Amino acid sequence: MDRIRIGTRGSPLALWQAEWIKSQLQDLYGDLSVELVRIKTTGDKIQDAPLAKIGGKGLFIKEIEEALIREDIDIAVHSMKDMPVKLPAGLCLAAITEREDPRDALISRNNVKLADLPEGAKVGTGSLRRQTQLKNCRPDLNIVPMRGNIDTRIKKLESEGLDAIILAAAGLRRMGWQEKISETVDPAVLLPAIGQGAVGIETRHHDTDITQFIVALDHEVTHTAVDAERAFLEVLEGGCQVPIGAYATIDGGELTLHGLVGSLDGTVIHKSEIQGPAQRADALGRNLAEELLKMGAGKILKEIYG
Questions:
Q1: CB under 8 Å, gap of 24 or more: what pairs does 53-59 form?
Q2: Which of 22, 137, 153, 244 can bridge 238 by disulfide, Cβ–Cβ 3.0-4.6 Å?
Q3: DSSP state, 1?
Q4: Catalytically active residues, by annotation
Q5: Residues 210 and 251 in one domain
Q6: pTM, rounded to two decimals
Q7: pLDDT tens-digit map of 98-121
C-alpha cells in the first residue's frame, strides 16, 4: 500500500479536517501518497431546508460512504457529530481523533455574552438541540433557523441583521477564527451534540492494509467517550428531528456522561448524568438513555415521531 485516497466533503471545514488527516499520515509514513477526493453530498446540495425535514445529518455522508463501498476512495473523514449510529454493512470506524473543544460558541455583535443579549434578540442556529436549550434558558430570544458553511453563517450575522449566532467551537478553532468567539458556552447551559469536536475515519472492514495505517491516529480516550455518547443516541433512536445532546468526559479511568432530551418548544427538558468505569462506556450510554426514557423522554420522542 503506497497510496490512500481520502473522501471528503468540499466545505472549508471538511477540507481542513481532511488535510489535517493527510498531514498526520504523511508525518507518520513519509513515503505514503495521500490524495483528497472531494464529494458533493445531498446535505451540501440542499441548503434551503432544515436538516430535520430533509433526512438528517446522514445526508452529509451518504455519497461519501457509497464511494467508500465502491472503492472509489480508501477512507472517509467525517465530523463525528454528522455520523449516524448505524453504519452501512462492510464499513467501520477505524479511528476517532483527539477531540477539539466540544462546546458550542456564541458569536455576537459587540461581543455580548448569551446572558446579556437583549430581550427578543435574534439568534441564528440550524440545530434543534441548540434551539431547545436556548428556548429553555432564554425563552425571550427570537430563534432564527440557519444553515450553511461556517463562513456563510458568520456572514449572515450581518446580512440578516442577527444579534448572535451559535456554532461549534471546534470548527471555529480549526479554521483559525477563535478570535470571533464572544463566549464559549458552558455545557451546563448548552449540552453539545453527540461526537461534537471529534473527527472520525471510516474504512472498509476487510481492508486490513488500510486500517493498519489509520489506527495510529486513534485517540483512545476520545474514542471511548464518543462510544458512550453514541450508545446513548442508539437507544433513543434519535436523529436531527429530536433535540438530543450528550457529552462524556473521562478522568482517571472514570467516565462521566451527561445526556439530554428536550421538547421542540424548550418547555420540557429531561437531563441526567451517569458515572462508571470507562471500559463500560457502551453500557453507561445505554443505561443513561433508559433512565431518560423513564423520566419522560419517551413521550417526547413519540410526539415528535408520531
A1: 56/84, 56/239, 56/240, 56/241, 57/81, 57/82, 57/83, 57/84, 57/239, 57/240, 58/82, 58/84, 58/239
A2: 244
A3: -
A4: 82
A5: no
A6: 0.92
A7: 999 999 999 999 999 999 999 999
